Amino acid sequence: MPPLTCSGLTTCSIAAVIVQMVGVSLFMLGFFPVKPTLSGVSGPESFRPPDHEVYNLTTPLPPPTHLKSLYQELSEIPPSFDRLILMVIDGLPAEFVLGKDGQPPSKALTDAMPYTQSLLKNGMAIGYHAKAAPPTVTMPRLKAMVSGAIGGFLDVAFNFNTQALLDDNLLGQFFSIGWKMVMLGDETWLKLFPGLFTRHDGVSSFYVKDTVQVDQNVSRHLGYELNRDDWDLLILHYLGLDHVGHIGGRNSVLMTPKLMEMDEVVKMIHLNTIVPQDDIKRQTLLVGAILISSLLFGLSFVFTPQTCAYVVVSDHGMTDNGNHGGSSYEETDSLVLFIGPTKYASDYASATHNTAYQVDIAPTLALLFGVPIPKNNVGVLIAEIFTSLTEDKNQIKKPNVIVVFIVQNCLGPNFTTTTISNDQQLRALELNSWQLLRLLEAQLPGLSCRSFNSDGFSDDQGLGISKCSGSMDEMFCCLYRNAKLLHSSWKLKTVSR
Ligand SMILES: *[C@@H]1O[C@H](CO)[C@@H](O)[C@H](O)[C@H]1NC(C)=O
Ligand SMILES: *[C@@H]1O[C@H](CO)[C@@H](O)[C@H](O)[C@H]1NC(C)=O
Ligand SMILES: *[C@@H]1O[C@H](CO)[C@@H](O)[C@H](O)[C@H]1NC(C)=O
Question: Which segments cross the bilayer (predicted)?
Answer without folding.
Answer: 12-32
